[in-house]
Amino acid sequence: MSSTHSSRFPWNHLIGFILSIALTLLAVFVKFYTSFSDSIVVWIIGTLAIFQALIQLFMFMHVTEGKEGWINVVNMIYSVFLALVIVFGSIWVLTSGHAAMH
Amino acid sequence: MTQANTPLEYRSHQSQMNILGFWIFLGAEIVLFSTLFASYFVLEHNTAGGPAGQDIFILKDVLIETFLLLTSSFTAGLAIHFMRNNAKNDMIVWTIVTLLLGAGFLYMEINEFIHYVHEGATIQTSGFTAAFFTLLGTHGAHVTFGIIWISLLLFQIAKRGITEKTSSKFFIASLYWHFLDVVWIFIFTFVYLKGMVG
Asked: What class of enzyme is it (chain A) (predicted)?
């Protein structure tokens, strides 16, 4: 069980907040102040977004909390898997699949 | 796990099941938003002679929206922290701050949409704008619903105090609010940042 609820000062939340602001600014910096190619920029800022989502999940939403915390983790992993199949599957079928018909 | 250090919202079996059920709902929400993201990624280059993202997006406004929502997620976390310390007044104050930040986000987003319409980008302009407004509009509608939901819960907390029932309801609403921030992070990254010229 997380001990955050009994501590006097919510350090966990403050650190999560500072990290999320820092990651946002870092993404803006990578996009506008570096000279990486477009695809590399998307990979970097995409990775930063995933880190931010994990901060929300673990530091703010306490996904592992509760007696059945592992169920939440499995549920989230399965949902993200479905989301990735939907997004990359749609892009694949509707771009290369469409192009193949010509 | 002893009774003493179990947060109030997890004490009853019903509350535990409600929280678990809400996590499963959030899983379904992830899939819902993934379909909207998929449509957007497929259609984003189909501008049909209308404006593209790089023509209409304004970094400053998008950053303000992002910081409003990130901060509101933080203050929602603080409200839960104070709820668990049984500090009702602090909890109410931070919840009100959360709602104001959420309302500020909505105000910025509505102005942004009005700006786009004036720039000639309505939902009917192109595949890009249709997918864009559907994705952003669905997120904005969730934020609107969240503000109404949490406002109503605030009355319950003020009237009944922090009980097993109200704390469980409020914790679930906070999960929803954090989740909207997660969705926004991906909109910010893959719609706005990706769509602008670096």
From this structure: oxidoreductase
Contact A45 B189 (CB under 8 A): yes
Minimum CA–CA partner of B65 in chain A: A24
- Distance from C-alpha of B157 to C-alpha of B153, rounded to nearest angstrom: 6
The fold of the B8-47+56-195 domain, in CATH, is Four Helix Bundle (Hemerythrin (Met), subunit A) (1.20.120)
pLDDT of residue B2: 45
What is the ipTM, given to two decimal places? 0.88
pLDDT along chain B (198 residues), means of 10: 69 91 96 97 93 94 97 96 94 97 98 96 96 98 98 96 94 97 97 91
Whether residue A13 and residue B74 make contact (CB cut-off 8 A), yes or no, is yes
Q: What is the domain extent for residue A23?
A: 1-65
Q: Do A42 and B183 touch, CB atoms closer than 8 A?
A: no
Could you tell me how many CB contacts below 8 A there are between chain A and chain B?
Answer: 149
**Same domain membership, residue A84 and residue A61:** no
Amino acid in position B124: Q
What is the distance between the alpha carbons of residues B150 and B173, in angstroms, rounded to a whole number?
7
